[in-house]
Amino acid sequence: MIQNNRHKYSVSAMCDVLGIARSTFYYTSVKQPENRTLQKDIKEIFKQSRNNYGTRKIKKELEKINRTVSRRRIGRVMKQTGLVSNYTVAQYKPFKSKVNEEPVKNVLARNFNGQEELAVVVSDLTYVRVNGRWNYVCLFVDLFNREIIGYSAGPEKTAKLVYKALSSIERSLDRIQLFHTDRGSEFKNQLIDEALEAFGIGRSLSMKGCPYDNAVAESMFNVVKIEFIKQMKFSSINQLERELQDYVNWFNRVRIHGTLDYLTPIEYRLGTL
């Protein structure tokens, strides 16, 4: 009201009539453009995160452009503008695979942090619908910086899919010291065993029925389901493979990680060289 009538009446007089302090009007007048800019920045960061970031990571990204904003305020802006993170719905596995009964010990012993680059690589598989049928994705993750270093997709949950992901790794395989997985039968295959032996890669298996022994891989696939699989519909395996390649590139080069001091996996790796 004051803004619309200030060409006819003085701001002081209108504030006296309305019973408000003049400073209140000027504070609001200055604050509105700043709020619009903040909304724009938050929307852009949220969009670049593929609708995945919450207040904590948005706060970190705002700090990169010299904007200090509380998480509470970011939350208010997100609520006002209808920005809802993909992290909302629980995920469920349709079935469990057979158990690998190999007498291999849990060498990793849940020592997930403080590893050197390529010292320990973990892996797991998850499911995805492609044109109404179940297909599967396999990922290899370096514990050092949570980087996805190998991946594959296919219609069958088998050792061949695991070997395909292993073959996709563009780093020197002889640098990998330990390969850790759960006891899914897809990780037991002569071809895989021969490859690990050829490159001198040690083996570690979770205890039977204990997902906590492969917690990083489990957590990784929870992220992939929420951020990638659940957000898209795949009409063919070719589309799944293309989109997976794009997601892995974004995950490694753009997505910041709280466990990496809010750096991307690539930034963290390059920063430690």
Would you kindly provide a brief summary of this structure?
The protein has helices at residues 2-5, 11-18, 22-48, 55-64, 71-80, 159-167, 190-198, 215-227, 237-253, 265-271; strands at residues 120-130, 133-142, 147-154, 178-181, 202-205.
Could you characterize what this model shows?
The chain has helices at 2-5, 11-18, 22-48, 55-64, 71-80, 159-167, 190-198, 215-227, 237-253, 265-271; strands spanning 120-130, 133-142, 147-154, 178-181, 202-205. The protein is built from ten helices and five strands. 42% of the residues lie in helices and 14% in strands. With 273 residues, the protein is an alpha/beta fold.
Helix and strand arrangement:
Layout: H1 2-5, H2 11-18, H3 22-48, H4 55-64, H5 71-80, E1 120-130, E2 133-142, E3 147-154, H6 159-167, E4 178-181, H7 190-198, E5 202-205, H8 215-227, H9 237-253, H10 265-271
Helix pairs in contact: 4-5
Low-confidence regions: none
Distance N to C terminus? 60 Å
User: How much beta, percentage-wise?
Assistant: 5-15%
Count of strand segments: 5
Anisotropy-based shape: elongated
Query: How much helix is in the residues?
Result: 40-55%
Rg on CA atoms, Å: 25 Å
Question: What do the pLDDT scores average to?
Answer: 85
**Helix segment tally:** 10
* Biggest sheet strand line-up: 3-2-1-4-5
Estimated structural class = alpha/beta
Biggest pleated-sheet summary: 5 strands, mixed
The helix-strand sequence is HHHHHEEEHEHEHHH
